[in-house]
Every structure is written in C-alpha cells, then in structure tokens.
Design brief:
Helices cover 45% and strands 14% of the residues. By secondary structure, the protein is an alpha/beta fold. Strand 4, helix 4 and strand 5 form a beta-alpha-beta unit. Helix 1 packs across helix 2. The protein binds 3-hydroxybutanoyl-coenzyme A.
C-alpha cells in the first residue's frame, strides 16, 4: 500500500524536525520552502540528526537511507496536490501563514487536512483563511520535534471531530503523546511556560538571583532540562516574545505584559542561540554570561 504523503511547509528547525519524525514513521514527506537553499539546509539538518543516531548505534546506514529516501524537497505548492496532510511550520506571521494556506486551499484535494504548528496565533483565525475550516487544526510540536514527546492538538471553532481523530491518528503514528487543548492564547504549554518565564525575568530584574543562578536553580531543584533563560535562547527570543504578546493581547491582562528587557534584546537583534547572543553569549562556541548588557 502506498504511504500517505505529508507536506511540511517551512524547512527550518521545526519543519525539518517534523519532516524527519514523519518520515521515520513511514510517511512520504515533501519538505517545502520558498527557496531551494532553505530546503537544502533543512535536509542537511535531518542528515546531521540521523548521522548522530547512526554514530550512537540507534539506526544503521540503511535505516538512515530509508528515512531520507522518503523525504523529497520542493519549492512548488503544486506538489501538495495529493497530500493527506499539510503541516505548516513557517515563522510566526499571520499574513504569511494565511497566504500560504489560502494558496494551498485552491491546489489541494478537498479531503486534504491542514495543520499549523503555530506557537501563538489562534487556530480559528488561521482557519478563516481557508474554505475547509472543518479540516483545519493546530498540531503543535515542541523543539526539538525529534526529541520532545508531546504534541498539542488544538481544534479551532469549526474543526470537525473527524479532523481531531485524524490528528490523533497522525500523532500516534509519529510515536508522540498528545493532549487536546482549547484554542486559547498560548494554548496550554506555552501559557504555563510563559508564566514561569515572566516570573524568572521579574526575579532577575529585582536582583533576587543572578541569571545563571536562576537557570541553575530550576534545573537542579525542579529537574528542568534547561533553565528559563537557556530555554528562551534555545527557542528564540523573538518566538518567546511573540507568545507573550499573544497572551497579553489575547487575555487583556497586564500580568502577561512582555518584559521590557526581552523586548530590548529582540529589538537589538539578539534572538538567542540562532543569532549568537540572547540572554547568554554563544559567539565563542560556549555559553557565556554577557558582559556587555547590564541586566
Ligand atoms: N535535533 C535533533 N535531536 C536533538 C537535538 C536537535 N536539535 N538536540 C538534541 N537532540 C537529541 C540528541 O541527539 C540526543 O538524542 P539520543 O538521546 O537519541 O542520544 C538527545 O536529544 C539528548 O541530547 P544531548 O545529550 O545532546 O543534550 P541534552 O541531554 O542536553 O538534551 C535537549 C538536549 C533535548 C534539547 C534538552 O536540553 C531539553 O529537553 N531541553 C528542553 C527543551 C524544551 O523545553 N523544549 C520545548 C521548548 S517550547 C516549544 O518548543 C514551544 C514553541 O511553541 C515555542
């Protein structure tokens, strides 16, 4: 039987990770981005992640080749025509996402299911960009998608039960656990994590402890794999700021007001690991405290 095809839109960290887990589960995957070099970067990321598994003896070369042979690159939306699922994982911009979905709505088969991996934009709002709002849903992976075991399933106002069932089936097939979450600002995990992050920023600004000690405390006391500042740098300060803005605007509650310090860092172009600096400085290849910014 021919395997179902998933088209992943966006070959960045999240998109390439989702493409990898889908291919590992036996799906045929089309990894799409707007330029071929972006697609190639995504493929290189997958190659690196799979090579690391080969080195650790978790898969063999043949297994790696098998997974990679299931992933095709694309810069053409027309390749989505027969896809079973579209999973969008481009950067957090409503207009960009809505444009992609409405273009694909015209191209794809009526039965093709649409999912967004948005971390902050309401699913119901994105679903309004297509005529198939009943077949539109949030499928929210966590970074890195190859490792994190949870996926949030977020139905919009018009999402059908059948689409929720199909989303659950997909998540099970890619060997993740799911939680069903209402379409509220921040969904579930980002909402709780944002509250923790904001409190960490407040502690830092009140001088309760140093940035490194706040990270150390949460790792050693609560068993978090990364402290709140390390995690913010890992996810991207721009992504984290977007989540806070969504919570602030969505709930109209001052408790979600984004940290001014965080806004300043994002405005300066310091976005975390991906730009070399965020709450820490990574430019030497190591994670070091920043000397140039007074927190
Ligand atoms: N891609 C693929 N695999 C990766 C990876 C990556 N970027 N980074 C690490 N891994 C794999 C490693 O290969 C290793 O696999 P193995 O167990 O099969 O050998 C495993 O993860 C552990 O990696 P390491 O030993 O190198 O390093 P750590 O033990 O420090 O783990 C980590 C790295 C998994 C990133 C861990 O630090 C962690 O869990 N951090 C917290 C991540 C987190 O909270 N993510 C959620 C962020 S919020 C979010 O994504 C929502 C969004 O909407 C903002």
């Amino acid at each position: 039987m021919e395997s179902e095809v998933i088209m992943v839109i966006g070959a960045g960290q999240m998109g390439s990770g989702i493409a990898q887990v889908a291919a590992e589960a036996g799906y045929g995957v089309i990894l799409h981005d707007v330029q071929m070099d972006f697609v190639e970067n995504g493929m290189a990321r997958i190659d690196k992640a799979l090579s690391s598994q080969v080195q650790k003896g978790k898969i063999d070369d043949e297994g790696k080749r098998r997974v990679q042979s299931r992933i095709k690159g694309s810069v053409t939306y027309g390749d989505a025509r027969n896809a079973h699922w579209i999973i969008e994982a481009v950067f957090e911009d409503y207009d960009v996402k809505a444009k992609i979905f409405s273009a694909l709505d015209e191209i794809c088969l009526p039965e093709t299911l649409f999912a967004t991996n948005t971390s902050s934009i309401p699913i119901t709002r994105l679903a309004a960009s297509v005529k198939r709002a009943d077949r539109f849903i949030g499928i929210h992976f966590f970074n890195p998608p190859q490792v994190m075991r949870l996926v949030e399933i977020i139905p919009g106002l018009k999402t059908s039960r059948e689409t929720v069932r199909e989303a659950r089936r997909f998540v099970e097939k890619v060997k993740k656990e799911s939680v069903l979450v209402k379409d509220v600002p921040g969904f579930l995990v980002n909402r709780i994590n944002a509250a923790l992050r904001l409190e960490a920023y407040t502690c830092l600004m009140e001088g309760v402890a140093s940035l490194e000690d706040i990270d150390k405390a949460l790792k050693l006391a609560l068993g978090h794999p990364m402290g709140p500042f390390e995690l913010a740098d890992f996810v991207g300060l721009d992504v984290g700021l977007n989540v806070l803005k969504t919570l602030y605007e969505g709930y109209k509650d001052p408790k979600w007001r984004p940290s001014l310090l965080l806004e300043k860092l994002v405005l300066s172009g310091d976005l975390g690991r991906k730009s070399g600096k965020g709450w820490y400085d990574y430019t030497s290849g190591q994670k070091l405290p920043r000397a140039d910014v007074q927190f």
